[in-house]
Design goal:
alpha+beta; Jelly Rolls; three-stranded antiparallel β-sheet; 11 strands; RmlC_Cupin_sf; Cupin type-2 domain-containing protein
């Protein structure tokens, strides 16, 4: 493995209108699968359904805005500068509860195929076939399972 530097301005970006803009900051390919780092710009009132990463730990870094997160059935409020660690196998979800877009970064460790999952979501969005059902099916192929509605 070798050191890696990426440029924020040149990060590959996927825009899900009215929901989330996802930036790929560091891929699993770049880290030999050790981790992957992403950033979400989350519109007000938006967040994913409750889900589990069966084989990955996830760490959130809340950068801008106001968020709530539910981790293992417990709710927390997050402000800029706050951090949350979600061990693999833990049910969790987050939501932007502010009036403006919020921003958070997150690390998956190990990377596994999480990037491919997000790209598959976007391909389904572009094809007009993205739904809660298709997201659930895609997720299962990549070690993630949706287990409940959004917050």
């Amino acid at each position: 493995m070798h050191p890696v530097h990426t440029s924020y301005q040149q990060a590959d970006t996927l825009k899900f209108p009215g929901a989330i803009t996802l930036k790929f900051l560091l891929s699993g390919e770049q880290t030999d699968g050790q981790l992957a780092i992403f950033e979400d710009i989350v519109e007000p009132g938006v967040g994913p359904g409750r889900h589990i990463h069966h084989e990955q730990d996830e760490t959130f870094f809340f950068l801008e805005g106001q968020f709530i997160a539910e981790v293992a059935g417990e709710r927390f409020e997050f402000s800029p500068g706050d951090v949350a660690f979600i061990p693999r196998g833990t049910v969790h979800a987050f939501k932007n509860i502010g009036d403006t877009p919020g921003r958070l970064r997150y690390i998956f460790s190990p990377a596994l195929s999480i990037e491919a999952m997000f790209r598959a979501f976007f391909a389904a969005h572009e094809a007009g076939t993205l739904s809660m059902e298709s997201m659930a099916d895609i997720s299962l192929l990549h070690g993630q399972e949706f287990v409940g509605p959004p917050l």
